[in-house]
Amino acid sequence: MSAKTVGLIDYDMGNLKSVAHALEKVGLKVKTVDSPSKLKGISALVLPGVGAFRVAVKNLRTRKLFEPVREWIETKKPFLGICLGYQLLFEEGKEGGTSEKGLGIFKGKVKKFPSKNNLKIPHMGWNKVMPVNKKIFSGIGKTPYFYFVHSYFPVPEDKNLIAAKTEYGMPFSSCIAWNHSFACQFHPEKSGANGLRLLKNFAAQIPS
Known about the structure:
Radius of gyration: 16 Å
Strand order of the largest sheet: 2-1-3-4-14-13-12-9
Number of strands: 14
CATH superfamily: Class I glutamine amidotransferase (GATase) domain
Helix content: 10-25%
Largest sheet: 8 strands, mixed
């Protein structure tokens, strides 16, 4: 496999085609990963996802990918988490009153937007992102717009992780970054030129 091949986790939680297309558009080769054996020969791992936190954890465990994904991130290998793939990095998610443990890479919980001030939930559509990490947002404007679809958001305990913030009834962490990795609540694959530039910045951080 090429040194710039990324593994795209397939656990039945989202449209892989649009993510794969965007990754290929910035010069990366994509290999679908639906079992631990498929992790061989890749240089970075991408965990996308749309849907319920609890179901995502169950599906990762069913495909025996939960521990391999956690080990990949803990060993500081390049990683990208998108939407639900961002939320799963934290200790706990709640949906329908039920708590579920996430990957636990970072301390913090996933919370739901409060139902107040006529706030529409889910948060859906284009919204302004305020970067605080210049490296991952290199070449992107000071207040770029990205596309969101979510009702929940992580609250990282370590504020140094936060790479960007967004306002939706309240400020929340819409992107985090560490080592050669980052994770975002918005969908770069649906965010036009800004999203592609962000993915290109991620690709540049993957060692050859």
